[in-house]
Amino acid sequence: MDASVFPEYATGMEKTAEKSRGGRGPVNIEEMAAAIRAGNRTALARGITLIESTRPDHQEQAQALLAVLLEKTGKAVRIGLSGAPGVGKSTFTEALGSYLTGQGLKIAVLAIDPSSARTGGSILGDKTRMEELARDPNAFIRPSPSSGTLGGVARRTREAMLLCEAAGFDVVLIETVGVGQSETAVADMVDMFVLLLSPGGGDELQGIKRGIMELADLVVVNKADGDLLPAAKRAAIEYKTALHLMRPKSQHWLPEVRLASALKGEGLAEIWDTVCRYEEIMKETGTLEAQRADQALAWMWNELREGMMETLRTHQGTKSRLKALEGEVAAGKTTPTAAARSLLALLLRD
User: Fold this and answer.
1) Is there a single domain that holds both residue 62 and residue 79?
2) Same domain (yes/no): 235, 277
3) What is the pLDDT of residues 258-284, one digit of tens each?
4) 7-11, 60-64, 307-311: lowest mean pLDDT where?
5) What is the pLDDT of residue 185?
6) Where is this region: Disordered (predicted)?
7) What are the phi and psi torsion angles at 173 (to 5°)?
8) Containing domain of residue 340, as a range?
């Protein structure tokens, strides 16, 4: 359902958002929540913008919105997609998304872009790279800057995912920046972690960090077409061997390897069948429910860490002392541990 279903609300949303940006009025939470539940894309986009805002008043409104919508979340299939730059993530995401909408499913894509160090905005703009899927009435694409967040995901990706579920999307695809030392946070928020690889075989395998491979529930060798098909088949065998040497995440599921050609739309049905089989097994064994519970707890602790760091930087009792302690640590006059304990002591004293 698009914004035209609620034309008067869409106009109201624009005015409300404008007021909120100018600080002249709060967002109407109940109205926004009702429109999101009805599938209003304008409301969904505005809700995600509210969630991503760093303004304290916006964050309070965002949490109020999530509280109202929480009971409508949790029904979508959550899939994380990661892979090195150049492996064809956006092409694959668009191909898989189009295949799923062709099956009658509604899909949301949260595409996390690298951030500009100068402006903080998205550099690549995934929505412009998925033009066909962006025009699909059963698909919703939301590019967000990573804003320097480790893990290849935006800090508020989890909340954005919940809003998409409340809006009635059947599948939420989270496409991350790429594979790196800390590009594993997506595994803490999705049901299935899909690692997309190129048909590079053993040479590429050496460059893939073991931790990333151990997190994968499904490995997809993309670009398995034309002259690259033989290399892709060889790579798939090598990846299967590598996965068998690693300890699986769950006793109920052994990671699988699939071939795909996003360019030709080949292998997508088999990949989706694998995803459905995985979800069914995880649900039947109770693993999915336990996994989501663990993820929620990990999310809470991450918010506590982030909140503590922000408090240390802004709290009146520690803000003035922080700069001096940084100078002492840099000059070797005190140890980092002693400085950290000193700051925490000041915070707890107040």
Assistant:
1) no
2) yes
3) 999 999 999 999 999 999 999 999 999
4) 7-11
5) 76
6) 1-25
7) -100, 125
8) 292-349
Query: In b/e form, how buried is each residue of 46-77, taking b as 16+ CB within 10 angstroms?
Result: bbbbbbbbeeeebeebbebbbebbeebeeebb
Query: Which residues have C-beta within 8 Å of that of residue 83, sequence separation ≥ 6?
Result: 89, 178, 179, 195, 196, 197, 222
Residue 268, domain CATH: 3.40.50.300
**Residues 27, 17: Cα–Cα separation, whole Å:** 7
**Residue 284: other Cβ atoms inside 10 A:** 10
Rounded to whole angstroms, how far apart are CA atoms 169 and 159?
14
Q: What is the pLDDT of residues 167-194, one digit of tens each?
A: 999 999 998 866 554 457 788 889 999 9
Give the model confidence (pLDDT) of 206-224 as tens digits: 556 667 788 899 999 999 9
If asked whether residues 247 and 297 sit together in one domain, one would say: no
Lowest mean pLDDT among 97-111, 115-129, 192-206: 115-129
The domain that holds 341 is classified in CATH as 1.10.287
* 195 plus 253 within the same structural domain: yes
Coil, strand or helix: which one is 202? helix
Of 53-67, 121-135, 260-274, 276-290, the least confident: 121-135
Q: Which of 110, 218, 130 has its CA nearest to residue 172?
A: 110
Q: Are residues 197 and 95 in the same domain?
A: yes
Question: Are 29 and 151 part of one and the same domain?
Answer: no
CATH code, domain carrying 36: 1.20.5.170
**Predicted pLDDT of residue 23:** 45
- Reference 160, options 2, 58, 47, 56; nearest CA is 47
Indicate the burial class of 1 (C-beta count within 10 angstroms; 0-12, 13-18, 19 or more): middle
Short-list 67, 37, 66, 70, CA closest to 50: 66
Buried b or exposed e, range 92-108, using 16+ CB within 10 angstroms: bbbbbbbbbbeeebbbb
Query: Do 77 and 65 belong together in one domain?
Result: no
Residue ending a domain, among 70, 91, 116, is 70
User: Is residue 329 domain-shared with residue 220, that is, in the same domain?
Assistant: no
